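Schema walkthrough. Field components (list of strings):
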Amino acid sequence: MIAYLQNIAVLFCINAILALTLNFIMGYAGIYSLAHTIFFGIGAYTAAYLALHVTDSMLVCMAAAASLSAIISMALALPALRVRGEYFVAASLGLQVIGVTIFAEWKSVTGGLGGMIGIPRPNLFGYVFNDDSAFLALSIVTLLAVLGIIALLVRGTFGRSLMAIRDSESAAQAYGKHVNAVKTISVAVSSGLAAIAGVLYAFYMSFINVEGFTLEISILLMAMVIIGGTGTLLGPVAGAALLMTLPAALTYLPFLPPSELGAIQQIVYGIAMVLLMMFRPGGLVGGRSKEKSA
Amino acid sequence: MLLVQLIFNGLQTGALYALIAAGFSLIFGMTRVFHAAHGATFTIAGYAFYEVYSVAHLGWPAAALTAIAAAALFGVLLDRWVYAVIQRHEGSFFTVFAASFGVAIVVQNVIAMAFGRGLVTITTPLSKSIELTSGLFVAPMTAIVLLTALICFGLLQYLLTKTNLGIGLRALGENPVLIEVYGLTQRKLSQYAFLIGSILVVPAAILTAATTGLNPSMAHHVMLISLAATIVGGVGSLRGAALAGMLLGMAENLCLAIIDPQWSEAVTFVILFLFILFRPGGVYGRAVTT
Amino acid sequence: MSSTPSLAHIADDRDHSSQQILLQIRNVNKNFGGLQAISDVSLDLQAGIITTLVGPNGAGKTTLFNLITGHLVPTSGTVHWLGKSLNGIEPWRIARMGIARTFQDLRLFNQMTVEENVMTVMERSSWLWQSGKNAITKRVDEVLAETGLFDKKTERAVDLAYAERKFLSMARIMASDAKLWLLDEPASGLDPRSFEKFVALLRDYANRGVTICIIEHNLDIVIQLSDRVAFLDQGKLLAQGSSQDILKDPHLAAIYFGDHA
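Field assembly_structure (string):
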């Protein structure tokens, strides 16, 4: 039982980081990306590759993953600077598809469809996180660190610039905001931190393949953020918690066929999204208003 | 001969894509709703046909009518019961898009539960390939696909240029105030846009069921094509979307001559991505302001 | 151009020659693929002077503003601010050079609070933190007090009443410490009391040396506010001078009220 709960807790931390970082650009910057999972994947594959071939040092892996992800995120930043709304969503969709294809086909680096196996646990100054409880502690600390970074950014000068650009790009420019720089940085931060979640994921699961980074997952991440509430700092965390507890809760309902629980879970999300958008666009935590002032 | 074979395949795929894209482009261009559930309409139509034709064995006219009714009902009711409600109080692009997404997720999973996740196809003698000349295999189905597409576009062209409804629909996309002149309301026209746009995918869905088969998650691919063709062709231009759809279908098949099939979808997206970066207005579309 | 009436340079009876010319617009043209939006406009804006741009709808007033702020680039001609050419400089950089504007449709940061709207304008750099936080908070409070919005600090911009929104728009520009203010119909729809407060605010800042240029339709407002008036029609600067002289001219009145084709 303990092991089961610990497992859910670790996955919760990982999903919460992903949701928080996605909300950073969606709720605060107004950049709606369907490609978030790709950066999660870049982090995971980077960590896996380094751990298997170079070093199992956690700090090195995290630094490398975050940096690589931030650099590649320029591919997402470029359309973000030029177009909005539906056009940007389409561009991010394109990136997601291209990314998945690369993950699946670049056998020499990603292991192709078979993925990468036997990823060792990470090493921090000599201590190896073989113990699952220790790994949970690591995950929680990482989640709190990411939460801290995002809170710091969002509640301060940078956050205000971001929201100003979201609310009126032309006015923000008229008052001296360097719109391109701010957008680019926010995309880089979001992607870099998402990669950190990927690092945790790779180390924890010891096996990764492209199935973990598909469009389906990107859609579910978006659902998490929307349901939890795009306009709040903790809304995405609530969304992630829901994602974790819902499957468990569903197993307790006797009339549901166990083989279809996955589908039923998604149906619940789908319905929740529709109803929320109709009556409470701010999500469960946010309420009526979709956007936030810090 | 491989090249010619690929061209024929490309024409078939292209015609189907053109129909799908035109449906989405019509809805999006005219109502400005990012109808992410367009793929769901396709899936519903396809499975409806399959259920009536292959499972209940009620003959293809009944099956076709069921498919049309199902698609039309889905599109129209979605617009009336969900999109309209949202647009009344807030209606930002993202809220509508997210709701549309939610619906798509529900439909995909309901169909998966009802029909299973595997591929289902409709067997008909028409999809049996005949060897026209050495190495060139074409099925009568290809001709049917092309003919259907041409008829549909012909009808659409007539509707949009010669009828009041059609002119009203075109005005809705460009100059909404003008439609009051024709005694129509935006709401009513929006319903028509969804009706026509949803029906347009039905032939594509049926034909796809008879050729490559159906599976619950194909809605994704349908959406990707719709989006790519609409943007590359130019938002607001049906002709652009249809042409772009045809081109994407051709490109997808012709690419097989040079690269692995797994990359063909990625190629579509590289094209889309480049267009968004350098020419978001598409080939025929209006200028895009950011 | 040569058919411009000789009213073009009416002498201004007040002596403004001692005021520094900060913004120089010289022979600016703006052409939108065949449509000549601005034709050979030359205008000087001086410190401490409130200039109003008047003219019928579509005369090119907002276009002129956009040419100054960098949102549009002149087809020909120059715009100099404090002696430096603004041609080709990005809008955000021009803003940081001390030029700020308001919009006819306000464009407030609607989902942000009143306080945040003002604070974000003061935070010149977009990075992590801004040094001198205390000074900023103090100035924000000052500005909010001057515009009567202090009590509404934590309300969202979108929830404010109309007049309050107009004042928030002014609060932003006041907090920006800009030396040139371009105001696009800032007073439209204000009730008399709010209007008085508004006029007092403008005068106060003008006396502190700010250069102010306003686009305004309401002639009463123009008369009460302006030191100088510039009359624009179909992209051409027909006349400029003191408000008395411009507004008394029957020829211009005819154009303004649409008595010609």
